[in-house]
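Reproducibility note. Readers wishing to regenerate the assembly model reported in the main text can use the exact inputs given here. Chain order matters: entities are listed in the order in which they were concatenated for prediction.
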Amino acid sequence: MQKNGNTYLFLFFLAIILPVLSYSLFLVSSSAESASTGIITATVAVGICGNNIVEYGEDCDGSALDGQTCQSLGYDAGVLTCGISCDFDKSDCVNLGPDEGSVVFSGKAYPLSIVKILKDGQIAATTAADSNGYFETTLTHLIVGSYSFAIYAYDSNGNKSKTITYTKEISKDEVEEISAIVVPPTLNISDDNIKKGEKITFSGQAAPGAEMTIDLSSGKDNWSFHPTAGSSGYYSYKLDTKDYDVNDYTVSAKTTINNLTSESSEEATFTISESSQISSNSVKGWKKVDFNEDSRVNLIDFSILVHWFDQPSFPSKVDVNTDKKVNLSDFSVMMYYWSG
Amino acid sequence: MKLLIFFLTAIALLSGSCAKAAGIFAEPASYFENGQKFYEIKIFLNTDGESINALEGEVLYPQQDLNFQKITDGSSIVNFWIKDPQKSPDGKIIFSGGMPGGYEGEKGLLFSAIFSLKNDSSPGQTEISFQNFKVYLNDGRGTEKKLADLKSNFNLNEAEVATVQADTKPPEIFAPYVTRDPNLANGQWVVILNAQDKGEGIDHYEVFESVKEYKPEEIVKNNSLPWQIVKDPKAYILHDQSLGNYVYAKAVDKAGNVRVAIVIPSTAQKPWHFNYKVISVIIILSIAVLIIFLELFFFRRRKYE
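Running the prediction on these inputs yields the following structure tokens for the assembly.
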């Protein structure tokens, strides 16, 4: 009987203490989240659905819809909301009257790549290329007027291409076409500091079978290399640096397919040295202007930059080009890497 | 005769280069509205074969002859203004902004400045000057390219008379961004507003926070609501930092057309989300009750065995 009494007592405490403990944990995590902004950044990094910040792998989060609307998702009107799994709830989106104007986009990116189309700087459509890299999508219900469209793609490693832009006048009930788009290839270099005599690899993704041109320059000297992309769109070129001077080099790539040549990719730079050097750990590429570290360069980053624009003191990360000022030069870098 | 043709060609080329030299240039037009004549000076960018993604500058106009009325930028190639084109206290029109991915072309509209004539002036030869004009290359390095001060001369008497249709279309549907960041407004929750308007352009934004849910058509017609004019649409600090309110954002274009966007509070949107951490408490409590039940069940079985 004593044993039974102890068991009941134990179970009673279990029933009381466990909820109290877990609720205490809840309180601690709540207060930690709201206590300091540093903690908030940490929360962003782990990607929680329910923190009102859109992170990698989420369409939306709470009130944050990542700049999307019913219209940007192909509807005429309505209120877009966020579902419980941080995906869009389009149940209140509606289609209304006839089109005002449309534009069809088509061209080549990389096999099975994600292609984004921006309308006046905001994401208006997301589509996927087929296994040949071909994509086609239509933006409808565009109010008559002049538009700036920008297009970029992500390769299978998640690298963003350079953005290409088009300006188009949209007329009522007309279907405009922007065709023969060739998305510039992505470009990676194996190292940005290399010892003379070692090999450096230039690689990336383009349309399958595309003829590549890799342009290398240093001062007034220029070289070109011409690998061919494989069936999956990957290309690679290994350069032996033994015949190259110790110096700084800039490299870019472009692709030619069906007699259409893309714009050059984003440039990459590297240094050939006499001795091995540790690669710089400085933040590079689009990450320089992703101030809130949500893997996007969009209105939030723009607002942060404008907040500190021409101010005497500012967070160091906002001074992108490290000239001790937050000015149009920093803004220009942001416009270059803009993802919407 | 050949000499005359040569001179005429040279004059034509020179006058053309004066009006449309690489950089920035202006073209006039005119229109009537409510019986009054207005002059529209369109400011264009010629990138001269380069891709430009940011620019700034100042436009000077003859203040003794022209009354500044307004700026329209609905069809501008500039998507994001850091400094909206506006008349400064010293009478210049100042602007700075940019476009993602850059613009390359010979005639990209930046904005239009609308003027009327001063009472005692008559239209004639007019000079528009551009100064402190800088462009930035779309090269990922923010390379600045300063251009020489330029002037556009034209005769307003010869400005083409255009037929202007009233701007009756509201701004395009837009999505407010609700966010917070340590580097923005001291880490408070803010709403960021950015709408596009293909007519005369966006004039201003207003925000109204409420626990009550209004339908979009209902809130547009309701004039009794205390809308707040947004001074900084790039970071409007929300009054309700718990995000429990509906946030109604209104974009108003320069013709007075309105578009309303609604941010649904996260608590209303996902009732479970408000208590998602409490759910863990409930689960643990349920497990505890289950353990008690199982323990009682097996205890009694053992007892009767």
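We highlight two features of this model. Residues 275-304 of chain B form one domain. Chain B has three domains: 20-161, 177-269, 275-304.
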